[in-house]
Amino acid sequence: MTLPIDPSQIDSDDIGEQQTTLEMGHEEAIEHVREVFTDAGFGVPVEFSPSEMLNEKVDAGRDPYYVLGACNPEVADRALDATDNTLGALMPCNVVVWEEEPGVQRVYHVSIMRIARLAGMAPDDDVMADIVADTGEMVDEAFESL
Questions:
Q1: CA distances from 37 to 4, 34, 104, 116, 129 (A)
Q2: Within a domain: residue 104?
Q3: The domain spanning residue 127 has which CATH number?
Q4: Is position 82 within any domain?
Q5: 3-class DSSP state of 54
Q6: What is the number of alpha carbons within 13 Å of residue 65 lying toward its C-beta?
Q7: Where do the coiled-coil regions begin and end (predicted)?
Q8: Spatial separation of the C-alpha atoms in residues 111 and 104, rounded to whole Å
Q9: Using omega within 30 degrees of 0 as the cis cutoff, is the peptide bond preceding 92 cis?
């Protein structure tokens, strides 16, 4: 399979990558990230711990790792309309919290809106540009508050 884009040519801005570290316990960080993203206009309808599942099912020995599926219903509705419903395959927008070491948590996010455009799942037009800008502002606000 040939990729339609050259991954080596993509930088973190192209995919809306944001990350930071928090100096606190893992559970405290999850609560903090959930609160901050909620305050920035996101709901968190989906949450799960891949590390718990993998440690239980395949004895992976993974350190704490948690996914918060954040979503702003208004923006999600606009994105589904703009992509003839295909963007739903990437929803919700995930924010990941993993423990780098005890007391230090990494918070990581990439923009599904930007990735959808790069992958050809979303149009490269003004409507999608507005959606990307709106979600980008909300994520920026959240990361500034972390």
A1: 32, 5, 19, 21, 22
A2: yes
A3: 3.30.310.70
A4: yes
A5: helix
A6: 12
A7: none
A8: 24
A9: yes
Does residue 3 fall inside a structural domain? no
Task: Tell if the pTM clears 0.85, that is, is over it.
Answer: yes
Domain that holds residue 32: 24-143
Give me the number of domains the chain comprises.
1
In a domain, 46, yes or no: yes
Distances from the Cα of 125 to the Cαs of 27, 75, 89, 102, 131, in angstroms? 40, 16, 20, 44, 10
Cα separation, 104 vs 99, whole angstroms: 6
Per-residue pLDDT tens digits of the chain, which is 146 residues long: 787 778 888 999 999 999 999 999 999 999 999 999 999 999 999 999 999 999 999 999 999 999 999 999 999 999 999 999 999 999 999 999 999 999 999 999 999 999 999 888 999 999 999 999 999 999 999 999 99
Which residue matches tokens 């508050």? 145
